[in-house]
From TrEMBL:
UniProt key word Transferase: yes
PANTHER family, sorted: ADENOSINE 5'-MONOPHOSPHORAMIDASE HNT1 (PTHR46648:SF1), HIT FAMILY PROTEIN 1 (PTHR46648)
Motif Histidine triad motif per UniProt: ranges: 99-103
Signal sequence, renumbered to the chain: none
Classification lineage: Bacteria, Bacillati, Bacillota, Bacilli, Bacillales
Protein name, entry field: HIT family protein
Taxonomic source organism: Bacillus daqingensis
Superkingdom to which the source organism belongs: Bacteria
Amino acid sequence: MADESCIFCSIINGDIPSAKVFENEHVYAFLDISQVTKGHTLIIPKNHEKDVFELREETAAELFKAVPAVASALNDTFQPEGLNVLNNNKEPAGQSVFHYHLHLIPRYGSEDGFKAVWEEHSSDYSTETLQQMAQNIADAMNG
């Protein structure tokens, strides 16, 4: 189901042009206009699903089925040193288009224009705290 106000739904419908990389009945992949690095590609479900919290299992299965093929094509085409698969969910996490999407960002070295910053906080959590957190998550998954 499309959302008329969604730019990605408009791209899927052909109302807005895109540089298509791949398409099947469930998934559409195209070059991101920002090109954070050369070959930066977005993979989106054709169904409008806002974020990972609304993503149906069937949609996720179809979407992630396409990821290795698109990633391999990027690898064969550009021979990057690596590849980031990135997804932002909700505005505080950096989501700016509210149609679920994955970024495939080829990496060409430390000066390629993409910076991911990870801070290590292992000293903030004891083994017992980690076990309790894991149990809380498992309990939430089991209802």
